[in-house]
Design goal:
This protein is α+β, with helices and mostly antiparallel strands and 301 residues long. 31% of the residues lie in helices and 35% in strands. The chain contains 3 helices and 15 strands. It has a 7-stranded antiparallel β-sheet with strand order 5-4-1-2-3-7-6. Strands 8-9-12-15-14-13 form a 6-stranded antiparallel barrel. A hairpin with a 5-residue loop joins strand 4 and strand 5. The longest helix has 74 residues. The radius of gyration is 36 Å and the shape is globular. The chain starts with a helix and ends in a 5-residue tail after the last helix.
Length: 301
Amino acid sequence: MEERKRRNGPRGHISKYIVSGVLVLALSAAGGVGGAYWYTHSQAGTVVTTTTATATPTSASSAKDASSIASKMSQSVVAITTEEMTTSNFWYGSQVSSGAGSGVIMSSDGYIITNAHVVSGASKIKVTTSNNKTYTAKLVGSYTKGDIAVLKIEATGLKAATFADSSKIKQGQVTYAVGNPEGTFANSITSGIVSAVSRKITISLSDDDSSSSDSDDNSWFSQYTSGRSQSSTTTLNVIQTDAAVSPGNSGGGLFNANGDLIGIVNAKSSDSDSEGLGFAIPANTAVKIAKQLITNGKVSS
């Protein structure tokens, strides 16, 4: 009996040790698996949350903002077509020549601002809004030396542009040019930046208006109308932009990143070797002239 106890004694202790060791290993393994599961899922949860919270909504918001801004700008810009009677042809008598440009809605009741050279000499002026409604326009007043004119159409509920303070624009900020390039592609939008805040260009004037050149008398700037008689010149202080503009954009809007008007497009480079040289009359200047034309029919010097 004593011998059997002695034999069983150590063996019993060893069995206890083995069982204890197995339990420890099992608990360790379970703890390791559980810890790994918790760590993996907690980390994965963080990544998913971050991705969902930042990437997806930002992308959708940006697309919505861009679409809203485009709609805001295009609704406040109109296409302008003109007819002009000419009597200079000896053989054929009076003839009608046509022109095209753009304009910006100043007020919901039908006042529209454009360039003086767009409507200069016109016997008939038609305005087409972004919803394709066409109106006969009346010339309220024109200030050739500032290249600004105001039209009036009989309409209500128009979407007027939001005019920004053009004195606060900065070089390098985003710009959008909206207009009727080539007199065919109404409500076209192009983008760029403010290349320079203040430039001086000298434009040639006549009753019909003509071309423009920079202040150093280089001959590579022109108004969108060309080939007409010249008589005098005036110098304009303008915003320079590299947003693409074409004949027909004249009188249209130059907008900032929020879709607010900062200028009225009026000139571009006519040199075939030059690109990205467009100009716009600052909104502050254009509005000041327009208000005088509406109130007095003329601009006091």
